[in-house]
Structure formats: structure tokens, C-alpha cells
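Order emerges. One example.
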Amino acid sequence: MNRRDFLKSCGLVGVGGFLFGNRGLDVKFGAKRPNILLITADDMNYNSAGVYGCGIESITPNMDRLASEGVQFIHSHVTIAVCQPSRSVWMTGRYPHRNGAEGFEPIDIDVPTLQEHLCQAGYTNGIIAKNSHLKPREKFCWDYYIEGSELGRGRSPALFYDYAKAFFESARSADKPFFLMANSQDPHRPFADSQQEMDKWGESLPFSRQITEDEAEIPGFLPELPDVRLEMSQYFTSVHRCDEIVGEVLRALKDTGFEDDTVVMFFSDNGMALPFAKTNCYLNSTKTPWIVRWPGVVREGIVDSEHFISGIDYMPTVLDLASVPAPDGMDGRSFASVLRGDKQEGRDKVFTVFHETSGKRRFEMRCVQDKDFGYIYNGWSDGKTVFKNESQSGLTMDAMIAAAETDPEIAARVELFLYRVPEELYNFAVDPDGLSNLAADPAYADQLSRLRGELLAWMIRTEDPLKTTFEGYIT
């Protein structure tokens, strides 16, 4: 169905820069439905937020405040740790091999989207920045479409406020419920005040606070080296600017009077763009800070450390909140009942994947994680193929390679990153940074066998094309 047919099916008519539907569409849904605001970070590690354990003073006051006003999920993951396919999962409720967007390509035309269903239910749909990461455009029924180029390369808190407020005000004029996706393009590379930024854009974008090298935290999966510390200070400067964007979008929501009848969710699309995080299946690749505020429904200051939620669950959950019937074929399921305070069975693990980088390099990976262990199958690892991704740009990887010449421990980490091994098993409960691979340890043979079985069962259930290769490896 093309864009014109979608608009016709939704009853939409043009009004200035927006398209609004006949409010009669709301009648069949009865009671007033909540507005939906999704705020995303771009390449931000889960533990870069203060409320998730970052020790830098006041690094994310707005995210922290949002968590205090709602529920903070501990076991929350994206499904695939790279920008476009991660976002395609959110808006289809399907794994990448089931929605057609395994990498940086559009979803299949016959796959239903969240925006199509909200449109048909009478919602106004808006997106601010990261627009091209949801394709094809006609599948997403955007009524408000502001690109990152209009928002200081997606990094201006003040402009996010202006455009978000304009959207909220126009939605009020239309007297319709709304869905807005506001996407910070921080802390994606190039990091604030970096040479990489100057090389790419010829300028350093404004920021209000510079995180010093002394303040910066180095994650446990990276070594303590001067250039790593410098790059982490630039990364955290970008994290703080991202938090300011979160704060400005929330301020626009409050200033327009929508704070009390809007469900707000915040999360990141994947981990930081550094080795052993983004474009992989490690804990630091897919674990994301996921915060939900729903005034009058979600109790304030809740920390949920019981339920696993995943990117595939976003679409079914939003449809549930909006009382919109869900289409067949989604892999995820709603956790709306969890938000209302109930327990939900079957939320004790998560399956994550990786297919290809933005450079179209295929590195097939699959992972199953529960509260204690994570098992990763690297279907591409043959001892010869060299891993290559965006995380190797900048300062950190070069510093690690240089240090590897004299430091055997760093040399081993570099070799693992570049070549990997077919199987990795980590006790993430005590080793969240994945430093000790237990796959060959006889003491963990039972855990290895169990997780192999769970991953194979998932592959069969979802018709994963990698199933045959995996079966051949483990049998």
C-alpha cells in the first residue's frame, strides 16, 4: 500500500505542515487513549546513565529524574545492536530476519508497522531526527517529519524543545491523541569536541558541559589507556548533551499541558560505539536503559529487576496501551500489564542477534541471555575472517592495537575482538563486561548445553536461516 492509500485509509486531510484525520475515527475506541512519547538515545550504553550506575556527578539528571517518576527496567535489551535494524524491530515487533531489515535496508512492504496501526486508530504520528532509519517512509505514516539537519545535526537541545513543542501544540489543535518519536543523535560518533568531529563536519558543535578526562569512566571491557580515557571524556560529554535533549523534550511536553496524559518511554538503540559494545551480542551491546513514566498508572520510583523486556516488545506494548488491536505475526508481546504492577510469566530471558554492519559486512551472531549467563554463537568466526565495524574508528581501537605490542593481556583482547571464537559463554551476573569466556570450561558444561538448546529452539521457532549452520556446529 502506498502513502496515498494509507492516508485515505486513515481519513487524513492536509492542514498546513501537518496531516490530520477525522476525529470520528476515535469513536470505536471508546475511552480517552493516552498519548505516546518515545525519546531515544543514539549509541548510549545502559550504564552511562547515573540511575544505571554511572559515577560521574550529575551526568544525566533528566534521565535520573524520569526514572524517579516511573519504572526503571534492569533487564531491558534491544534486539540487535545497530541503529537502523534496531529501530525497525521496535516498529514492527519482529526479529530482523522476519521483518526484512537485517541491516541498513527497508523493511518488507507487507510487514505491518506501529505507525500504520496508530494512524488508522486516529493518532497523529511525528518523528524528530534519525528519520532515514525507518524505511520505506511510506510505511510509517508520519504527519510531522523533522530531520536531524534541522536540529543542529540532531544534537541541539534548544531546537528539540522548539520542534517538540510545535508538534504538541498542533496535536492539541487537532484534538487527537499523538505518537511522537524524538531521537537524540548523541552520543553517536563523532563525539563532542573530538578530532573526528572536526574531520567530519569542520566544526565542533556546542555543548554546555565538558566532561574532563579525570571525570570520565572507562568501562571494564576496555583497557586503561590515555587515548581511551580521552575518547571516553568526549563520549560522556555527548551523553550529557543527550540528557539535555531528553530534558528539553520533557519540558516541551509539560509546557503544553500533556505531561499527565502521556506515556513516556526512554531507551537507547544500542550500546556505545566502542569495541565489545555496538554491533555485537555482548551484554554491553544490547542492554539498554529503559524507563517508563505513566502518571496515575505506573508507581513512581519502581525498579523492575524481575522481567526481561526487549525491543520486539515495543510495538505490541504501545498498541496495547492505545487499545489498538495487534496484527498477527509479531514476535514480541505486550508488557503493559507489568507497567500496571502485575507479574508476567515467560520474561526470564532475551534473544538477541546481529547480521551486518552499515558497511554491508556480514557477521552472523546469535545470543541468549538470562539473569546469570549469556551464550553467544559467532557463526562467522573461522579463525581467518577479520571483524570490522564503526567502533574501530576514533582513538580507542588504535590505542589498543598499539598497546598490544607490549601487553599480552591487551593483545589477547584485540585478537578476540578481531577474530572471535565460535562460542562464548559468560557469567554476566559476576562478569558483566564479558572478560572470562567459560565455553571450554568443563565446570560450565551444563550451562553451555542448556543455552545451546534454548537458542536452537528459538531458531526453529522463528525460522532463523542460521539454524542449519548452528545445528551442524553443535551436533
In short: Residues 1-30 have pLDDT under 50 and may be disordered. The domain at 3-191+241-347 is CATH 3.40.720.10 (Alkaline Phosphatase, subunit A). The CA atoms of residues 113 and 280 lie 26 Å apart.
